[in-house]
Amino acid sequence: MTDKTVSLPEERRHGSFIKNNLRNYGMLMSLVAIMLFFQVVTGGTLLQPLNLTNLVLQNSYIVIMALGMLLVIVTGHIDLSVGSVAGFIGAVAAVLMVTHKVDYTLAFIACLLVGAAIGAAQGYWVAYFKIPSFIVTLAGMLVFKGLALAVLQGQSLGPFPPTFQKLSSGFIPELLPEAGTLHPTSMLMGAVLALGLVYASTKGRSREQSHGIEVEPYAFFLGKSILLACAVLYFTYLIASHRGLPNVLVIMTALIALYGFVTRRTVIGRQIYAVGGNAKAASLSGIKTERLTFLTFVNMGVLAALAGLVFAARLNTATPKAGLGFELDVIAACFIGGASAYGGVGRVGGAVVGAMIMGVMNNGMSILGIGIDYQQVIKGLVLLGAVCIDVYNQRR
Description:
disordered N terminus; 396 residues
């Protein structure tokens, strides 16, 4: 009798936690289920080291842009121009490095500054003139698509310098003696990352408890930490079995850690969520909502430029059609990952999971030989389902 009275509140607490966090954990379980499904139906091809490396390279620019798009969506806006901006920046990089032989470092910095200027121009109209972001960025999508055509004069331009190509196609140097086909340096970095994630989660949970914030049950936390560490180590082992960690994966990991820290541990991160939750209340509380909105678009421009450089380096050429449809995958990744269409809700981890869901679906369907037409249909239905779940949660 005593055991029942003690265990019942614990069971209720577990049930309440699952109910309140069903969306976040549901997306992660969906990613695992989708990967297992394609691993089975492709005969084990999906998680082969070579294909897994290609999966990272193919979706790196989507993940990078999803980090910026998340902040834009959290503030209650949208950016439809990111694909065109990425394509335009790739064209600018090609003209600088291929045509004018500008050093790749200077060209890289110049392209990021151009991306920041584009984001600032669009953010200015949205933040200070109160023009809907949908209209401003739709215009931007058309403008920069046309400018990419003009800069490239309707033709592809390449190849890029070999050093610049390593941005996307290069791998970290091996510092330790190789053990057969395994790259020890990559494994060591993966182990450090796994330990770092567990340590950060433990510290974060302790900090929340000390401030009286409700935390997940210890059983959930322990299980999640073990699974996360095992997943990182297994993923690293597979990647290290091919050619080691790609340079772009290291860049992505650093960006994910940076934006995770900014959104969860800094004042500006909390203010961005406050603006998305209720812009008028945020303004009355002293938050400079216009400046925050402006900065989120500047940030989006920089990340779109970085993604454009990564994509151009991977193709080793700039093409007029580069970036076509990127905005759809990026926006879908954020919504599938739990961002709310109403603003104020969304997590960096969720955006990354959403991007990986889109990437695994693209890769798996391509391996199975499913045409691009049906791929678009399936991705559209998945996006619609994610938004329907969001609307349901808002009304509940």
